[in-house]
Specification:
Nuclear Transport Factor 2, Chain: A; six-stranded mixed β-sheet; 4 helices
Amino acid sequence: MSDYLRQFAHRFAALDAHSLGKLGELYSTDAVFCDPLHEVRGLGKLQAYFAQLYANVGQLRFDFYGFDQVADGEGYLRWTMSYSHPRLARGQMIRLEGCSHLRWRDGLVHHHRDYFDAGALLYEHLPLLGTAIRWLKRRLI
């Protein structure tokens, strides 16, 4: 278990649309953020990415439950993200399990990579595409 990861998770979970200036307290200026849908390089672009994210969702919350440090300055966070978007799932809350791989130095994250099912995040909740993806998943099981 890592105190750094716990503190990072606590501070990250407290972010909202009005506190994105605090990203500089968590990430280095040369930070790289990747997920299955995006890659963002640099603190300024990361702030813009999160500003757009928060502007497009009704609610967004992260619940962290796994804090696994694997080396000096490297570890994993496991989480559940809950969010609502007016054009997805009729605006109802959507929950998604995921994992973040973090690397940090001097107390700031310089590499953040999220792992999650992009279909469960977005595509399964689109009216026509969601029906097709759910059908495909059932056929593959």
